[in-house]
Amino acid sequence: MSVRHRLERLLRAEQAGLLAIITLMVIGLSLAAGSHLDEATGRTVNNFFNSYTLIQTATDASFIAIMAVGATIVIISGGIDLSVGSVYALAGVSMGLALRAHPPASGAGAVLLAVCVCAGIGAAAGALNGLLVVGLRVHPFIVTLGSMWILRGIAFVISKAESILLPEALVRFAKAPLGLGAALYPVPMLAMVAVAALGAVYLGQTVMGRHVYALGGNAEASRFAGLRLGRIQVGVYLLAGLTAGVAAFLGSSFYGSVSCGDATGYELYVIASAVVGGARLSGGRGSAVNAMLGAVLIVLIRQSIRTLHLDQNYEWIIIGCAIVVAVVLDQASVRFAARRLARRAR
Amino acid sequence: MRFAAVALFCAAMAAGCKAPSAPAAPAGDAPRASAKPIRIAMIAKSSTNPIFLSARRGAETAARDLTLKTGVPIEIVWLTPPTEDGQIQAQRIAQAVNEGASAILVSCSDAGKLTGAIDDAVARGVPVMTFDSDAPASKRFSYYGVDDRRLGEQVMSELGKLLNGRGKIAILAGNQNAPNLRRRVDGIKAEAAKFPGIHIVGTFYHSETPQDAAAEVIRVNNAYPGISGWAMAGGWALYTKTLLTDLDPKRVKIVAVDALPPELPYVEKGLAPVLLAQASYLWGNVGVTKIVDKLVYKQDVPPIVSMDPVRVTIDTLGSWARQLRQWGFPDVPEEYLNLGQR
User: Fold this and answer.
1) In B, which residues are within 8 Å of A328 by CB distance?
2) Helix spans in chain A (H)
C-alpha cells in the first residue's frame, strides 16, 4: 500500500477529526501556556507541554473514558445508562469494605481482591439494570435513573458515609511509574487505552458486537432476523457496569480512598464523552475509540480553562455549549451525508 | 464526526480568546531585583460557597500587603472546583505543581483522597498548608482552622444555657461525608450528654444548600412539634429568610456555626441569639502569611495553628457586621453597621 493511499485512509478514518482537534488543541495550549522555572532542574518548563501535565490530563480523562466505552456500547444498542457514576461509587465502597473486613496478607492479594470485588459488583449492577430494562419493559432512562439513586443509596448506607482508606498496595499499583520516573503515573492512561482497544475489538470484530449495532440500528429488523434482543440488552448493560467497576478500581486505587459521594455527576461527563465521540443517542452508531477521544477532548477543554487562566466560573458554560454545538453540527452532518447519498442514488 | 470535533474546537478556542490574566502586580514598591515571585495555589472546597470567597479575598489582601512588605511579588492562583469533589481537588493539586506553584493552600473535601496528592506535591518540593478542613495524615506542613469537635461542644454549651438545660433539640448536620462536620456533630452530642434534661430527637443531614437545609428544618419541626432548640453544625439554613417567619423565637432557639451577612437578622430577632463565627477571611489571610513566613522568612510554622470562633450576639452584632464589611462582604445589612457605635 502506497504512502499516499495510507494517508488518504488515515484522513478518512472515523477518528481523524477528533485526533486533529486534540492535536491542534495541544499545540495551541503549548504555545499559549507560558512557562516556569523548574526548581529541581533549573530548566524552563512549558506550563502545559510537559510530561507531568500531559500524563495528568490523560489520567483525569482515563476514569471517565473507561466508563464512556461501556456507555457507548449501551448507546449504540439504543439504550442509555445514567447509573454509571453510582455503580462506580458502590463498587469502590464495596471494595473498601471488603479489604477492611478481609485484609489480604500480600499486596498482590489486595489488588486481586479489589479487582474481583469492583468488577463483580459493577457487572452485577449492570446486569441488574439490563434485566430490569428487559423484564419490566420500561425505558432504560427511567430504570437507570432509579438505579442511580438506589445504588448510591446502598453505597451510602453500607459505608455509613465514611471515607474509607485503601491499602497502600493498591495505591502503589495504580501509581506504578513503570520506569518513567517519580511522580509520573501512566497506569490509568494505559488502562484507558487497553479498555478502548478491547471495546473496539468487541464492537468491530465480534459477532456480539455486530449484534449490538444491529439492535440499535433497527430493533424490529433484528428481531425478525432472529437475534435474541433481551440477551443482547442485558449484555450491554453488564458491560457498562463492568467498565464502571474497572474505573472504580483504578480511580479509587489512584486516589487511595473511597466514599459514597465518589463520581457524583460523572454520568453526564461519560454520556457527553460518548456523544462527542460520535455516538448517536437513537442507536446504531458509535465507536469505543472515539468515546475515549471524546473524554480526552472534554478533559482537555477543562484543562485549557486552567492553563489559560480563564475564569473557571465559566467552565460549565463552556463545556455545555461545546457539547450542544458539537451534537447539533454532528446531526446536521449526518443529514447532509444522507441527502448526498440520496442524490447520488438518483 | 469531524463536524462535531471542529465545533468543539471552535467552542474551546472561543473560550480561549480571552487573554490569560496576568499575575497581580505589586501595588506599591517595586520588588527587589533578585526576588523570585511566589505563586500560591489556593484550593478551597467549592467556589459557590460565599465562605470560601471571603477566604480568597483574605488571601489576595495578604498577598498584596506582603508583596509591599517583603518586596517579593506574591500571586494567588484560585484553583477551587465549582462543587465539592475531593478527586477534582487532588487533580488541581497536581496541576498546580505541574505549573510551577511555589506553595499550595488547600481545604480538603476528602482527606483520604487528598493525602496522596499532597504527599506527591511535597515530594516534588512544593510545600502544602491546609485550612478549614485538614488532612492530618499527609505531609502538609501546617493546618489553620478551628478545632471542630471543640466547636461542636461550644455550640451545644451555648444552646444548653439558652434552654436552661431542658428540652428537645435537633442537630442539623449538613453533608454526612464531610469529616469536619462529623466531628462537630460528635462534639455536640458529647456536650449534650452533660445536660440530663436535654433530649436529642435526631441528627439530620441534607445537601449543603440554603434551600435544602431550611426545608429540612421545617420538615423536622413539623414531625417533632416539641422541638425547642436547634444545634446547627453550619449556618446553611440561616442563609434563607424562611425560618424567620416559620419559627417562633419564643419557642425555638438556634445556635449555629458561622455568622455570614444573611444570618445576622436571626441574631437581631432573637431566633439565633448566639452564632459562633469562623473568621473565614483569615483562612486565606493567615494561610498566606504563614506560607510567606516559611518561604521568605524561613521561619518554622507550627503544625497546627488554632483559630478561635468569634461569638456573635446582639451585643456584638454591630462590630461583627463592620468586620464583615471590612473583609469585603458587600451584602451586610446597612442597619447593623451603625449598631453599638458611639
Assistant:
1) 7
2) 3-12, 16-32, 51-76, 84-101, 107-136, 140-159, 168-174, 187-205, 207-217, 219-224, 229-255, 266-276, 288-307, 315-345
